[in-house]
């Protein structure tokens, strides 16, 4: 039963992480707290990949709810190992979602923000190999939205960090689920033999 408790604690840990990923992704749509940029499609294309909403958010919420509901599953199917097999699948879904969130956020960070420059709307740092991250003086190339570089860098860094934690938690549950699915039936048989 301790493995079910471990899975439930991981499920509880995933809930705030997934919520924060969703919020961070939504905020990327509204730089400078204005709706006009998204209406005119003047946001980076990577935002439309919904890495925080779909990958780090909904996929992780699916995994979290499976982990949290494992006690009921164990009661329904009769064994903890059955519930653990389901948690392995949920952990794989969570790993895929958090991995997607991490990769898209990393690509978006490398490309840099989409902003208004003297040459018009563009991604001015797209081809500099993320050197703009270390040179704050270059950030003034973006005229509008104000502070767009800081906005994007902060939110994308948050998504990178959150998705890393989500991935680690899902890997822990994957390992726990596999170990329990493989070794628990043997333990039950040994306990039964000792009692007989």
TrEMBL record:
<feature type="transmembrane region" description="Helical">
    <location>
        <begin position="82"/>
        <end position="110"/>
    </location>
</feature>
<keyword id="KW-0472">Membrane</keyword>
<keyword id="KW-1133">Transmembrane helix</keyword>
<feature type="transmembrane region" description="Helical">
    <location>
        <begin position="12"/>
        <end position="31"/>
    </location>
</feature>
<dbReference type="Pfam" id="PF05805">
    <property type="entry name" value="L6_membrane"/>
</dbReference>
<dbReference type="GO" id="GO:0016020">
    <property type="term" value="C:membrane"/>
</dbReference>
<feature type="transmembrane region" description="Helical">
    <location>
        <begin position="46"/>
        <end position="70"/>
    </location>
</feature>
<comment type="similarity">
    <text>Belongs to the L6 tetraspanin family.</text>
</comment>
<feature type="transmembrane region" description="Helical">
    <location>
        <begin position="155"/>
        <end position="183"/>
    </location>
</feature>
<keyword id="KW-0812">Transmembrane</keyword>
<protein>
    <submittedName>
        <fullName>L6 family member 1 Membrane component chromosome 3 surface marker 1 Tumor-associated antigen</fullName>
    </submittedName>
</protein>
<dbReference type="InterPro" id="IPR008661">
    <property type="entry name" value="L6_membrane"/>
</dbReference>
């Amino acid at each position: 039963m301790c493995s079910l408790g471990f899975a439930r604690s991981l499920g509880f840990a995933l809930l705030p992480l997934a919520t924060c990923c969703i919020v961070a992704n939504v905020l990327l749509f509204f730089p400078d707290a204005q709706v006009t940029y998204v209406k005119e499609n003047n946001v980076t294309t990577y935002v439309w990949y919904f890495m925080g909403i779909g990958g780090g958010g909904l996929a992780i919420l699916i995994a979290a709810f499976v982990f949290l509901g494992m006690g009921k599953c164990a009661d329904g199917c009769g064994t903890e190992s059955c519930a653990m097999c389901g948690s392995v699948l949920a952990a794989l879904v969570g790993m895929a979602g958090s991995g997607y969130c991490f990769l898209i956020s990393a690509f978006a960070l490398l490309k840099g923000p989409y902003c208004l420059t003297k040459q018009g709307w563009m991604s001015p740092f797209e081809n500099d190999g993320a050197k703009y991250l270390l040179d704050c003086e270059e950030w003034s190339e973006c005229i509008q939205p104000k502070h767009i570089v800081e906005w994007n860098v902060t939110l994308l860094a948050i998504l990178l960090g959150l998705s890393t934690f989500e991935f680690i938690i899902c890997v822990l549950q994957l390992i726990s689920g596999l170990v329990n699915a493989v070794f628990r039936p043997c333990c039950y048989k040994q306990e039964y033999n000792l009692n007989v």
